[in-house]
Specification:
2 domains; globular; mainly alpha; 71% helix; 384 residues
């Protein structure tokens, strides 16, 4: 046996062993994601607190919610509430403004949706306060895993997603969970803050979900292209395939619930008209994507058209979601059956959202991930 060939073979095997395999990335992202999802974060992007676990499965929503919390905290600090008395109220000190901003932010995240009764999904005083030590120890273990993951060579996009999960976790922990004491219970019981809209075409919750859907669609198109060994020009066609196959079930489920609630009245007209482009735009991607890629002289123009169609589809989707849930939202506060049906719709779509994130992550890493240029430093083995 040739010694040189043997050494070369061993070197190749050694270099491959030091590369980061796609399953390692998947399990690390699942760890970071589940840790952030399980954190009681309250009203994520203004949505119902019982949907926070599912919504935070998206790194896009984690990013938007983190930015919203920080911006809102700064706004509450610089726009404090002044005491309303007959005499001139004293000027608030920096410490008073900071404390007031913190209390108001806590109300926005954890106050009950129904002011007439306590909501056990929203009020979490005893649950969180009694578990501080456990949460701190769990976070220390997570930091050890994060140090190891961020030490890997390459993996820039994976590290960015992991960073979004970790930053969302740390922001909520520092701003709303860890520094809180008994004053939280008194503050929630004494006053309420005006919450932001939790639904509707212009709400932060619907907008953030729409961006998360667009992110998933482009990842789905990427792994379909790579799995079929398609060219870059075929990406618009695969974008249509990913969008249509991923969301048709959810669209039809929401429409079916709307039909049941509206009982074929005029209220069904707008959702029906919006359902046509919701199903038609992805089909247009699939049918005309190849012709668009070939017929357009410059590739950048084809990409701009693809992005434009994607924005149109997401924009119509926000209007569609608002239309199919408008009637049931209006009746939920008056009719118990409508309230239960609203919970059913939200829970089904939220869990569908989670499962689609998991499926997209597995397929994208399986077919689109390239381990070339990645490596595992030897010292990380000491971390387990």
């Amino acid at each position: 046996m040739d010694a040189n060939n043997t050494c070369q073979a061993q070197a190749v095997i050694g270099s491959q062993a030091e590369q980061v395999v796609w399953t390692t990335i998947l399990f690390n992202l699942l760890t970071f994601g589940l840790n952030t999802m399980s954190q009681p974060a309250g009203a994520v992007c203004g949505g119902a607190s019982n949907l926070g676990f599912m919504l935070r499965s998206s790194p896009i929503i984690c990013l938007i919610d983190t930015c919203y919390m920080l911006c809102r905290f700064v706004q509450l600090y610089f726009q404090p509430k002044q005491a309303t008395t007959t005499t001139l109220a004293p000027q608030l000190t920096r410490k008073d403004k900071l404390r007031q901003a913190h209390i108001r932010l806590l109300r926005l995240r954890y106050q009950p949706w129904d002011a007439a009764k306590e909501d056990t999904d929203d009020l979490i005083q005893q649950n969180l306060q009694s578990n501080k030590t456990f949460r701190f120890l769990a976070f220390v273990l997570l930091i050890v895993q994060a140090i190891k993951f961020f030490a890997y060579e390459g993996l820039y996009w994976s590290k960015a997603i992991a960073g979004l999960y970790l930053s969302a976790y740390i922001t909520v922990e520092l701003l709303t969970i860890w520094p809180r004491g008994e004053e939280f219970t008194q503050a929630i019981a004494a006053e309420r803050e005006d919450p932001i809209a939790s639904s509707g075409a212009l709400s932060l919750a619907y907008f953030s979900v729409a961006l998360a859907v667009a992110f998933l669609s482009f990842l789905g198109a990427a792994f379909i292209k790579d799995a079929t060994n398609g060219s870059h020009e075929s990406l618009p066609q695969h974008l249509g395939t990913a969008s249509f196959s991923s969301w048709t079930l959810a669209l039809l489920f929401a429409y079916g619930m709307c039909v049941v609630d509206s009982k074929f009245s005029r209220k069904l007209l707008e959702p029906t008209l919006l359902l046509v482009p919701m199903l038609g735009i992805p089909w247009a991607y699939y049918a005309f994507g190849p012709q668009m890629a070939v017929g357009v002289d410059k590739q950048i123009i084809a990409q701009v058209l693809s992005v434009g169609l994607g924005i149109a589809w997401v924009g119509v989707g926000v209007k569609y979601a608002s239309a199919v849930t408008r009637t049931i939202r209006d009746k939920a506060g008056k009719d118990k059956n409508s309230a239960n049906r609203r919970i059913l719709i939200e829970k089904f779509l939220a869990w569908y959202f989670v499962l689609l994130h998991l499926l997209t992550a597995v397929l994208y890493l399986r077919f689109s991930y390239d381990s070339n240029g990645t490596s595992v430093p030897r010292w990380t083995k000491w971390l387990g």
